C-alpha cells in the first residue's frame, strides 16, 4: 500500500451549513453524497472515522433566542436539528456501503444509540463510522465544542474541521479576498486575535488537551483524503 494515512483515528466536524450546499436551508442531497464519497476514500485506507455533525442548516439556538425564545429551549431545538442531519448522513454513508452508527447525547433510542464512549470506540475499531449527534446534550455549547470534546474522549489523533474556505485567515476571506491564509497558528493566537475558527470554549479545550485541529476546505473534492495523507493544505492549529 503506497498511500499511508498520517492519522489512524480522526474526528471530522461537519457543520450543518456544509450540508446545505446550494439550498437556502436544509440538506442538499448532492453535497451529502459527495461528503459520503470523501469519507469513503479514507475509510478505504483503514482510517477510523468519527463525525460530529452540526445543525445550523436547520436551527441555531441564538436565532431562536433572538426571536424571543429562551436560549435553553432554542438550544435544545438546535440539538434536535443535529440529530436530523446525523440520520441523513448515516443514510448517505450506508448508500456507499459504509456501516455507521449514530449516537445521540440526548436519549432517542428509537432512532439512535445513546452516547457511550467505550461503545463508540468499539464501533470505530470494527470499522464503523460513528456519528455523534445532539451535541454535548447541553445548552449554551456548540457542536464545535462537542467536536473537541469527543475527539479527546475517543483519543483521535486529529480534529478535522471542515469549512467552506481553505483554512484560517486573519480576516474573513469571503469578504476580504486579499487575506492570506495561515499555514499554522497556535491556539493562543486564535484566541487572542479572536479568529472565528471555532468558539473559544472549543479552542481552549483543544489547547488544554493538545488536540491538533486542521481547518480545511470540504468543498474541494478529495480534500479529506489529502489531509489524511499529510498534504499541507488548510491550517494546522496546535501548540
Ligand atoms: N447546541 C447546543 N449544545 C451543544 C451543541 C449544539 O445547545 O452541545 C445547539 C445550539 O443551539 C446550536 C445548535 O445546536 O446553535 C446547532 O449546532 P451548531 O450551531 O454548533 O451547528 P453548526 O454551526 O455546526 O451547523
Automatic annotation (TrEMBL):
Inhibited by UTP. GO terms for biological process: 'de novo' CTP biosynthetic process; UDP biosynthetic process. This is Uridylate kinase. One of its GO terms (molecular function) is UMP kinase activity. Its EC number is 2.7.4.22. Its main location: cytoplasm. Keywords: ATP-binding, Cytoplasm, Kinase, Nucleotide-binding, Pyrimidine biosynthesis, Transferase. The gene is pyrH. Pathway: Pyrimidine metabolism; CTP biosynthesis via de novo pathway; UDP from UMP (UMPK route): step 1/1. InterPro entries: AceGlu_kinase-like_sf, Asp/Glu/Uridylate_kinase, Uridylate_kinase, Uridylate_kinase_bac. ATP binds at residues 13-16, 56, 60, 163, 169, 172.
